[in-house]
Amino acid sequence: MNYKNILITSENGISQxxxxxPSKLNALNVATIQELHDAFQSLDExxxxxxxxxxxxxxxxxxxxxxxxxxxxxxxEEGAQLSQQGQELLFNYVENLKTPVIAAxxxxxxxxxxxxxxxxxxxxASDNAKMGLPETSLxxxxxxxxxxxxxxxxxxxxxxxxxxxxxxxxxxTAKNYGLVNHVVPQAQLLEFTKGIxxxxxxxxxxxxxxxxxxxxxxxxxxxxxxxxxxxxxxKCFGTEDFKEGTTAFLEKRKAVFTGK
Length: 260
Hints:
Elements (H helix, E strand, L loop, with lengths): L5 E6 L2 E6 L10 H16 L5 E6 L4 E3 L12 H20 L5 E5 L2 E3 L1 H8 L2 E5 L3 E3 L13 H9 L1 H10 L2 E3 H7 L4 E3 L4 H13 L3 H13 L7 H12 L3 H11 L10
């Protein structure tokens, strides 16, 4: 598939999606959101891809926000529809993907950019990265899950302050808050992220997918994550990966998982 706004490379089980709108600081528009959905769907269905890395083109920005020009004149109904469609098509979709998604935050991650990074399963930042949700300075609130995921990651009080002040935090502060897992020099960001992805590749893809589901269910209203864990733990016993993993352990060799 040909894309206008993103680039995709794949090697050794790791696929990288790069948002490629550097002249717009990789800002999200409707077309880019659709392309990202299509790319994630395609890679998730491709058994050769076991880890996805998401990053932005250039050295300035991961995603500097949404393309404000697209919605500046929207009505109430159009604004609500924009938020709902975006959440369903991309942000919630990425969060619930069975393939692990790592955000390599290589610069500004603001507004929809930070919301996109937060929808990934975890985040690694370059030391020049800056993060924030500045929507209240535009007279609006975060609409792609920011009011929900940010408190989950850094706590209610810090999220309230960050959203109310429309401020930015640097990479080290984001790490201290628990928003990102690691901070590395920008030149080492992708290499470091691929190193973690390689560690993930050693483990069972089917088990990882079920773990993602169980962890996410803990944060969903009306869903008992413990019950999901019990159910998915049991399901693992019926997989080829479980048989291979336990046999390899007993035979004192490395397991060769097939994701089945």
